[in-house]
Specification:
With 71 residues, the protein is of the alpha+beta class. It has two domains: 33 residues, no CATH class; 32 residues, no CATH class. Helices cover 24% and strands 15% of the residues. The protein has a three-stranded antiparallel sheet with strand order 2-1-3, with no helix packed on it. The protein is elongated. The model has no long low-confidence stretch (mean pLDDT 88).
């Protein structure tokens, strides 16, 4: 998905530096692609998964589900 910008449901051209005036009461909607990562999640270095667990970025259930982590 590419980025999309809407004001009051009307699409604007999504450029690197879009400029638009948004009036009070209008709705601005930004549709942005997510950062899904790169490569197969099961190939992720287990020490990086453990770091994310320790730092609270992922849960143990999430590590099992998303990375196949089994420790």
């Amino acid at each position: 998905m590419l980025a999309a910008i809407e004001i009051e449901g009307k699409a604007l051209e999504a450029t690197a530096s879009p400029a638009a005036l948004v009036e009070r009461g209008e709705r601005l909607r930004l549709l942005l692609p997510g950062g899904g990562g790169y490569g197969n999640p099961s190939d992720r270095d287990p020490s990086l998964i453990e770091r994310d667990l320790r730092d609270g970025y992922i849960s143990r259930d999430g590590a099992r589900r998303d990375y196949g982590y089994r420790k």
